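Researcher: Quick test of sequence recovery. Tokens follow.
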């Protein structure tokens, strides 16, 4: 059971934007620049909080210089002595935030014009919505996955990271998980919004609590979304708000099972999946899945 955030700052902003950086000063500058240029809020209505998990001194110094020189007016920097993981860093930002809404972004996201304002308006107009996720596109403009079904098996991780995903069983599992049979052009409730870009109502966090810090990386966003659904709130995908995502996943066809097993990210992902499935071992949340499917079929 996660503790609810007892000591959040009083609300004094419309929006708090939280970014977790890790050894990526160049892409962080690009993200911050896009926020400043494309954000339609007045400077006194929003704040940016960067939590830096970088360990290389060169990158830590460069990130501090970038913020001090170009973004000091709107941005607060927290630099951790070690990499504390994604959910713990996000929670650090939430505790420091004063926004009515919180936008969690990865540094490899570029905000497009109108996206932030559209997400805020969506939450304003949907009382029971806790989280809204924008459409993510790659630099070529092709839609990327930003929302998913629930994990039904840990094997989906192996399917997505290795050539096993090219087998019939793997393809079927990936298609269902990524909702590949849907063109992602319409607004709809989803089980899980990707943590790289999500806007959350602060009042929803007050009810459900912070991210679960038992996850170091991966699955924490899925767990959070599941908790919001369990609390009677909804998660939506809203394609009219668009952002560019520069993330590239290694091609499954180029990665063997052996390489995946020895890949650190895959091992971390599997460990998080084990924690997730153990946490929900006694519940299928079938009623939530039925509710989401009913929305889709309306």
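Model:
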């Amino acid at each position: 059971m996660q503790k609810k955030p007892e000591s959040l700052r009083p609300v004094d902003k419309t929006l708090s934007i939280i970014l977790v950086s890790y050894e990526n000063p160049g892409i962080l500058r690009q993200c911050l620049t896009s926020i400043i240029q494309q954000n339609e809020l007045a400077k006194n209505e929003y704040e940016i909080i960067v939590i830096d998990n970088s360990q290389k001194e060169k990158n830590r110094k460069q990130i501090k210089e970038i913020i001090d020189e170009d973004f000091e007016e709107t941005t607060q920097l927290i630099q951790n002595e070690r990499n504390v993981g994604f959910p713990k860093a996000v929670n650090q930002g939430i505790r420091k935030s004063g926004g009515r809404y919180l936008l969690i972004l990865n540094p490899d996201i570029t905000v497009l014009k109108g996206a932030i304002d559209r997400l805020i308006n969506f939450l304003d107009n949907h009382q029971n919505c806790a989280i809204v996720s924008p459409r993510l596109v790659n630099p070529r403009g092709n839609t990327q996955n930003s929302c998913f079904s629930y994990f039904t098996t840990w094997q989906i991780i192996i399917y997505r990271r290795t050539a096993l995903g090219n087998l019939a069983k793997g393809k079927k599992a990936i298609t269902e998980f990524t909702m590949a049979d849907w063109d992602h052009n319409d607004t709809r409730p989803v089980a899980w919004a990707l943590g790289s870009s999500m806007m959350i109502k602060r009042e929803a966090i007050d009810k459900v609590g912070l991210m679960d810090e038992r996850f170091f990386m991966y699955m924490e966003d899925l767990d959070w979304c599941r908790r919001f659904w369990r609390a009677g709130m909804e998660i939506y995908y809203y394609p009219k708000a668009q952002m560019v995502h520069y993330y590239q996943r290694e091609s499954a066809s180029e990665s063997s099972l052996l390489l995946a097993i020895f890949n650190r990210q895959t091992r971390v992902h599997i460990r998080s999946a084990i924690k997730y499935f153990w946490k929900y071992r006694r519940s299928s949340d079938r009623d939530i899945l039925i509710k989401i499917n009913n929305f889709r079929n309306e």
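Residues 248-255 have pLDDT under 50 and may be disordered.
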